[in-house]
Design a protein that fits this description.
The chain has 2 domains: 2-46; 50-123, no CATH class. Helices cover 32% and strands 23% of the residues. The protein contains 2 helices and 7 strands. The strands form 2 sheets. A 4-stranded mixed β-sheet has the order 3-4-5-7, with no helix packed on it. It has a 3-stranded antiparallel β-sheet with strand order 1-2-6, with no helix packed on it. Strand 4 and strand 5 (96-102) form a beta hairpin. The longest helix is centred in the first third of the chain and has 26 residues, at 21-46. It is rod-shaped.
Length: 124
Amino acid sequence: MQELKLFDDMTRLAATGEDTSQRYLQWEVEHRTADTKHIYRESMRKMQGKRPFLTKMGYLGIGPVEGKSGDVVAIFCGGRIPFVLRPLKETTELGEFSYIGEAFCNGVMDGKVTGKEKQTFWLT
């Protein structure tokens, strides 16, 4: 709505021959800065309890703050959301993991990674 008012004001001023560039720049500073602050605040709110990570394969992601080196990012068959899992070192069997939390992983979401070997494992 503010954009329509600005357009109307600029059209009216331009019709009188007035240079509107300074006025437009001032409007941009006042209004776009507020939008940027809102977007930043909202992003930070959504990021509470999360931190960035980089997988061995070079995928950048965001996961639980409890995540640490050695954790695994996995997508369950039929799923679209990757999860952070931690291998259980105290077990002698391979393929046992504990659940750490959900993650966002660029390049892995929504089935973008295909052809990877399927593996059976246990969550405890």
